[in-house]
Amino acid sequence: MADVTVKHVDELAHYDGPHALAGIKFCYAAKGLGVTAWGMNVLKLAPNVTNYPAHDHLKDGQEEVYVLLEGTATLRAGGQSWPLSPGSMARVGPGEKRTLLPGGQGATVLAIGATPGQAYAAQS
To answer: Does residue 120 form part of some domain?
Structure first.
């Protein structure tokens, strides 16, 4: 049998614990696919939500790449803004505080992260 895992975004388990945010579905893509080399999640952002947490990765040194799969969004980081459309990719360094603001149709974003030079430790 081939070492291949195929899933649709809608099949991924998502976080629904006490820190869940209204209008944001945080889906476990790496866990769903069995990826162990880097962190990977799918963010499903409802139209025009503004509560996606601004954050950086100074403590863990993690770089993040965002790939917009559906909808539109604006990436804000370092006092600047970048419009994202389907197919857009953006890398954000660890020290940049960033947030995502979805447009009027919402946004589905693939977020990939890892710390350069360190083995990835998957979270359970």
So the answer is: no
Rounded Cα distance between 68 and 25, Å, is: 15
Q: Give tens-digit pLDDT for 44-97.
A: 999 999 999 999 999 999 999 999 999 999 999 999 999 999 999 999 999 999
Q: For residues 74 and 58, is the Cβ–Cβ distance under 8 A? A: no
Boundaries of domain holding 80: 9-114
CB proximity list for 35: less than 8 A, separation 6 or greater: 29
CATH number at residue 105: 2.60.120.10
Domain count, the chain: 1
> Rounded to an integer, what distance in angstroms lies between the CA atom of residue 112 and that of residue 41?
7
Question: Do 105 and 60 contact (CB within 8 A), yes or no?
Answer: no
